[in-house]
């Protein structure tokens, strides 16, 4: 969800008001997924590198997260949404950690949209953390299957589509393990301007992709062993 700061700057507003507007775009996207039977939505809200921002901005973002949990979890629950958080929550205040835990507990049996917020999340941290957890659980030999069980997104299928707003064409330490076969979609639209029509544009782009997962394409002629020139 990139572009909040620039959205505010364009309007001669403080950056934090861009984040406040960004929250409205979050609500719209969550509602869109809920109404269209999209089962997993994962939002990159705060990266492990975002602590490098000015203290006022970091405090504002954490306070916004806390306020959203306080005010919106009951509604999510009513709409059968399962809430999850991925990332290192140990750096958050006890109050925020409690709210996250309570939101996850309250909504754990819901069967609709799984809404995951990535906060203090980094893709490299996730992989190292998974390796540590696997070792602590007694795994001596690591394999892809073993590691996958300890990754933060182990409860979700691998993402089909990544949408990055704000014009940058990079992953910025998002869920790097899980994204290997994800279709990537980049748009210049700044996150607070991201409307339902933009979501449709991204989905329409996605539906035109040919997902092969490393296999040959359907039209590709496959040579049988006998026809291969040794
Ligand atoms: C939102 O956009 C990302 C968050 C950390 C919440 P930015 O704050 O990165 O906005 P730009 O890139 O400065 O426009
Ligand atoms: Mg940015």
Give a written overview of the molecule:
The protein is of the alpha/beta class and 230 residues long. It has a single domain, classed as Decaprenyl diphosphate synthase-like (Undecaprenyl pyrophosphate synthetase). It is 42% helix and 13% strand. The chain is built from seven helices and five strands. The strands form two sheets. A three-stranded parallel sheet has the order 1-3-2, with helices on both faces. Helix 1 packs across helix 2 and helix 2 runs parallel beside helix 3. The model has no long low-confidence stretch (mean pLDDT 95). 3-methylbut-3-enyl trihydrogen diphosphate binds next to helix 1 and strand 1. The site of 3-methylbut-3-enyl trihydrogen diphosphate has 13 residues, from helix 1 and strand 1.
Properties at a glance:
single chain, 230 residues, alpha/beta, Undecaprenyl pyrophosphate synthetase, 3-stranded parallel β-sheet, two-stranded parallel sheet, 7 helices, 5 strands, globular, binds 3-methylbut-3-enyl trihydrogen diphosphate, binds magnesium ion
Give the topology, please:
Layout: H1 4-10, H2 15-35, E1 40-47, H3 55-78, E2 82-86, H4 94-107, E3 114-121, H5 123-136, H6 144-148, E4 161-164, E5 183-186, H7 196-207
The structure holds 3-methylbut-3-enyl trihydrogen diphosphate and magnesium ion.
The site of 3-methylbut-3-enyl trihydrogen diphosphate has 13 residues, from helix 1 and strand 1.
